[in-house]
């Protein structure tokens, strides 16, 4: 059977071991819908330019629709000797239409064909990740009203630092995932440039209309240089980087909630539907989804490194090495998609352990900074206030009491300037209410941000 990829220059067939080594149909078959869409647009452009007849274009498009239905139903035999999905589709077209099918490849190469298909696939995949990130943001936002009265300890260096409202925590993740969505949007602009028509490396002497094809396929523009286009995988690298940042955000969230779900913290309880048990310890409720989310981030970051190394030494223009760009990126998209599909319902269904949080919120002197800033507002230099509060905290630690329980006269031994009004900032609730700056955990500021995000995410 004739293979469209081998011309008369070859004196012998391909070694079967080479066919096995070089095939990509095992992973690039997922591009078939994009390949068929691109081929139909190319056929219609060829007809509009008089390079094939309208009837031939109609035959090609009809046959491609039939082939797509076969692939949807998994009824098109996949053969290693045809290497990739693009050759499978073209061979199936030729088997149906003969010379009419052979005309489809006029004015294009597999190089620009593959790049175009891959760009369309990545474009769709980015849109899907963006949708899932929106759902995760909405899940965090849905908690804000219900958790509005909960005060949590914020940590630096994993040591208790200052008190914050629970919605302030949820808004922090909404902000992180919003930046991820902005990166997706920005990345998509560079992905969404049409490669079709630059042919193998230098363009084509056939009078095609690249602009018409780009518009038909919903691209924002066309790539400008055939040499660059044939070798370019920046859009793959950038997409992998965007996914890598999302992975780090998901991993950090997972790590935090894993800690919060321990007996030592006891801050949160994950839905049992997202946990597993132990084969030997009957009391265990393990946060496996969170642990796997944290673990799977390593794959996504590893895929980014794989892709960077893949292209680092390639000369212009196309090299077969670029066939290896798809498995890592496919895996990164699949992994992030799987994590996000579970993240939103897990966030929505988790329960803050209010009694445990409330019972421990005054531990760790979270109001110490508020006391220092109270002194500053009274006119004391920051460094002196910092030193004096350190001494007052030391006194409270020795007495094993909170700052709010420390007698005023004891505080005045270190800072005579203090009076009874200091009680206005002591204790986690009063400390939270003392915040005023934009972006802070001030109840007023948090309520404003929640309202803003409700409008943005609606």
TrEMBL record:
Gene3D superfamilies recorded? Fumarase/aspartase (C-terminal domain), Fumarase/aspartase (Central domain), Fumarase/aspartase (N-terminal domain)
Q: What is this protein called?
A: Argininosuccinate lyase
Using the UniProt record, give the first listed, main subcellular location.
cytoplasm
Q: GO MF annotations for this entry?
A: argininosuccinate lyase activity
Annotated compartments: Cytoplasm
In this record, what's one Pfam family? Lyase_1
Keyword terms? Amino-acid biosynthesis, Arginine biosynthesis, Cytoplasm, Lyase
The family database entries (InterPro entries) matched by this protein are listed as:
Arg_succ_lyase_C (IPR029419), Argininosuccinate_lyase (IPR009049), Fumarase/histidase_N (IPR024083), Fumarate_lyase_CS (IPR020557), Fumarate_lyase_fam (IPR000362), Fumarate_lyase_N (IPR022761), L-Aspartase-like (IPR008948)
Q: Pathway, per UniProt?
A: Amino-acid biosynthesis; L-arginine biosynthesis; L-arginine from L-ornithine and carbamoyl phosphate: step 3/3
Q: Which residues form the Argininosuccinate lyase C-terminal domain?
A: 365-433
Q: Which residues form the Fumarate lyase N-terminal domain?
A: 10-302
